[in-house]
């Protein structure tokens, strides 16, 4: 019996995206292992755990351990997720073929914090044999570093069997959800303030905000809600699994995602698949999926409040926007199709890499 091809992922085991990726590739016949600094159980995946990383500079100190772990695993393909952390570890490991996936801020934010980080990001990308990003903005950003490798747009996709619409008439009141992390980039305070403004304008409106995601700003966000007297209108759910997210999405009519910088957000796609109207920041990644009238500047509380008010006042328009989103996801957002494409790219990469390695060895042989 032929041994399955071996895929070694580098990424956070705690991330739902990594967990899904591992499951999807195991379902396609790959043996999957994971080198991670943040372990969590993933069925059928052998994990090699690095020392914890609490500060960004510590990624530089994990290169040796990551290299040894990858050498011991001897995988057919190494795939590092998040360029400026695990991507760097993959580049330092020297094992090929090496695939890198950019997630968003690793190319759109972090490299611009200093000339050193921009240089290091370019150095890392130029050691990849293939690069993927989940939006055209990430593809463009990666190509700006002039990598040798091809760059492909592969988005995370949605599990359509789980994230699907429920009848609009079954949704109570005017409930809003944010699935984004409680970190500065995602502008959760703007969403809270906009809901407060909406409530002040329409006190009889049965509005409720559900905050999922969790993060370091929880204490500040709870204090903001209390200071505005919105305790009865805001629920803090924190991090939820797919089933938990689907339950909350089923109640809601509108999903809000207003980060300052972002690539294609899985939470936006999942909200669309569930048939919600989606209001988002005017970013290239969002413009690929949403109509211009639902896009707005980041940190614009009044614009967000006005858009929410318009949706609350015109339930037919809100339902139509949700139906349009669900139809689009059914046509283009299926995770299975995206993972099938990635599986094919992996398999195309292997013979191409082996042929290139053979040519090099032939040239240096006596």
Key traits:
single chain, 366 residues, alpha/beta, Rossmann fold, seven-stranded parallel β-sheet, six-stranded parallel β-sheet, 14 helices
Could you please describe the fold and organization of this structure?
This protein is an alpha/beta fold. It has two domains: 183 residues, Glycogen Phosphorylase B (Rossmann fold, 3-Layer(aba) Sandwich); 165 residues, 3-Layer(aba) Sandwich (Rossmann fold). Helices cover 45% and strands 16% of the residues. The chain has 14 helices and 13 strands. Strands 3-2-1-4-5-6-7 form a seven-stranded parallel β-sheet, sandwiched between helices. The protein has a six-stranded parallel β-sheet with strand order 10-9-8-11-12-13, sandwiched between helices. Strand 4, helix 3 and strand 5 form a beta-alpha-beta unit. Helix 2 packs across helix 3 and helix 3 crosses helix 5. The radius of gyration is 22 Å and the shape is globular. It starts with 5 loop residues before the first strand and ends with a helix. The C terminus is likely disordered.
Beta-strand content: 15-25%
The CATH H-level superfamily of the largest domain is: Glycogen Phosphorylase B
Query: What overall geometry do the principal axes of the alpha carbons give?
Result: globular
Main pleated sheet:
7 strands, parallel
Give the N-to-C terminal Cα separation: 36 Å
Number of helix segments?
14
Number of strands: 13
Q: Radius of gyration, rounded?
A: 22 Å
Mean pLDDT: 93
How many domains?
2
The first-level CATH class of the largest domain is given as Alpha Beta
Helix content: 40-55%
The class by helix and strand makeup works out as alpha/beta
> Which stretches are poorly predicted, pLDDT < 50 over at least 5 residues?
358-366
Strand order in the sheet with the most strands: 3-2-1-4-5-6-7
- The sequence of SSEs as H and E is EHEEHEHEHHEHEEHEHEHEHEHEHHH
Proper CATH architecture of the largest domain: 3-Layer(aba) Sandwich
Q: Output the CATH topology of the largest domain.
A: Rossmann fold
């Amino acid at each position: 019996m032929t041994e399955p091809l071996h895929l070694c992922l580098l990424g956070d085991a705690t991330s739902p995206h990594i967990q899904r990726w591992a499951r999807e590739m195991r379902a396609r016949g790959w043996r999957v292992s994971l080198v991670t600094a943040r372990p969590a159980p993933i069925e059928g995946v052998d994990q090699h755990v690095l020392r914890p990383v609490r500060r960004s500079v510590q990624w530089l100190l994990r290169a040796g351990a990551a290299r040894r772990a990858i050498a011991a695993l001897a995988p057919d393909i190494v795939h590092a997720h998040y360029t400026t952390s695990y991507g760097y570890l993959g580049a330092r490991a020297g094992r090929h073929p090496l695939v890198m996936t950019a997630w968003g801020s690793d190319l759109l934010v972090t490299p611009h914090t200093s000339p050193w980080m921009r240089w290091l990001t370019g150095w890392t990308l130029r050691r990849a044999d293939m690069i993927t990003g989940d939006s055209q903005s990430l593809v463009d950003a990666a190509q700006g570093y002039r990598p040798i490798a091809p760059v492909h747009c592969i988005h995370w996709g949605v599990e359509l069997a789980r994230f699907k619409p429920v009848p609009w008439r079954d949704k109570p009141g005017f409930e809003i959800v944010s699935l984004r992390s409680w970190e500065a980039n995602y502008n959760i305070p703007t969403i809270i303030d906009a809901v407060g403004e909406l409530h002040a304008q329409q006190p009889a409106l049965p509005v409720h905000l559900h905050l999922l995601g969790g993060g370091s700003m929880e204490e500040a966000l709870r204090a903001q809600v209390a200071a505005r007297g919105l305790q009865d209108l805001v629920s803090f759910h924190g991090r939820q699994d797919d089933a938990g997210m689907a339950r909350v999405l089923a109640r809601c009519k509108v999903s809000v995602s207003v980060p300052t910088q972002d690539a294609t957000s899985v939470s936006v796609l999942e909200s669309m698949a569930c048939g919600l109207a989606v209001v988002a920041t005017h970013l290239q990644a969002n413009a690929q999926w949403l109509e211009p009238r639902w896009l707005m500047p980041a940190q614009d509380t009044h614009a967000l409040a006005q858009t929410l008010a318009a949706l609350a006042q015109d339930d037919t328009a809100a339902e139509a926007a949700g139906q349009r989103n669900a139809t689009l996801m059914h046509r283009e957002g299926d995770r299975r199709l995206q993972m099938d494409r990635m599986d094919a790219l992996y398999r195309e990469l292997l013979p191409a890499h082996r042929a290139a390695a053979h040519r090099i060895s032939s040239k240096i042989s006596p």
